[in-house]
């Protein structure tokens, strides 16, 4: 009998390291991920940087409509199921091959992001967990914490296209509170308004500790 996808994921998880960098929009995830990846690669670590959701999910018509216009007649359950399907493809096509190749995976958001966001949209955590049951939590998670108001200000300053959800400080604050409430013991919470150097150093030491290597001074 062929192995189930969940079994394949569980096996790959035993021999690899997946780090998720999470936080609401505007928290500084991209900057930290770039710095962390460079630091790990400089120390000889093979790194694969990726993101959830992928461009597949972001390009779907219901998703684009929601980001531009709001829910309308698009059920939150529909978007959550599309998100879960995208996550399974992401695991199969990117994350598992990277782990099996001996790489450390750094992901911009992971399954906790889906829980935080879709809870804000009215879905129960138990339902969200069930449709994502194939995806284990990452080995480590870094949560960049920032208030909804400060995040909106940062998003405005960077300019360009701004999704409907990113324009609401109250919505981003609700997602932030969901992140904080659901965080697990292996989650490192960092003040996103600290200096980039301080954030990067704390993240570096955390990831090294997860790999069970001595932490250089």
UniProtKB/TrEMBL annotation:
Classification via SUPFAM superfamilies: P-loop containing nucleoside triphosphate hydrolases
Enzyme class of the recorded protein, top EC level: transferase
One Pfam family cited in the UniProt record for this chain: Thymidylate_kin
Thymidylate kinase-like domain residues: 23-201
The keyword Isomerase belongs to this UniProt entry's keyword annotation: no
Keyword ATP-binding: yes
Catalytic reaction annotation: dTMP + ATP = dTDP + ADP
Catalytic activity, EC: 2.7.4.9
Residue positions binding ATP: 23-30
GO molecular function, one term: kinase activity
Keyword entries, A-Z: ATP-binding, Kinase, Nucleotide biosynthesis, Nucleotide-binding, Transferase
Task performed by this protein: Phosphorylation of dTMP to form dTDP in both de novo and salvage pathways of dTTP synthesis.
PANTHER family for this protein: THYMIDYLATE KINASE, UMP-CMP KINASE 2, MITOCHONDRIAL
HAMAP family from the UniProt entry: Thymidylate_kinase
Family in the record: Belongs to the thymidylate kinase family.
Protein name: Thymidylate kinase
Organism expressing this protein natively: Streptomyces osmaniensis
């Amino acid at each position: 009998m062929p192995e189930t996808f969940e079994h394949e994921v569980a096996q790959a998880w035993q021999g690899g390291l997946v780090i998720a960098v999470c936080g609401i929009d505007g928290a500084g995830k991209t900057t930290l991920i770039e710095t962390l990846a460079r630091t790990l690669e400089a120390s000889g670590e093979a790194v694969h940087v990726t993101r959830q959701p992928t461009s597949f999910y972001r390009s779907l018509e219901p998703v684009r409509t929601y980001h531009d216009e709001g829910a309308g007649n698009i059920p939150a359950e529909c978007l959550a199921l599309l998100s879960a399907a995208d996550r399974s493809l992401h695991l199969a096509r990117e994350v598992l091959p990277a782990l099996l190749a001996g790489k450390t995976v750094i992901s911009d958001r992971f399954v906790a992001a889906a829980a935080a966001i879709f809870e804000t949209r009215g879905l129960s955590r138990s339902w969200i967990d069930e449709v994502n049951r194939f995806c284990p939590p990452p080995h480590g998670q870094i949560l960049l914490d920032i208030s909804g108001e400060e995040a909106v200000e940062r998003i405005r300053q960077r300019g360009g296209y701004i999704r409907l959800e990113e324009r609401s400080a109250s919505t981003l604050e609700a997602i932030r509170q969901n992140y904080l409430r659901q965080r697990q013991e292996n989650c490192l919470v960092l003040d996103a308004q600290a200096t980039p150097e301080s954030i990067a150093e704390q993240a570096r030491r955390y990831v090294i500790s997860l790999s069970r290597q001595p932490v250089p001074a």
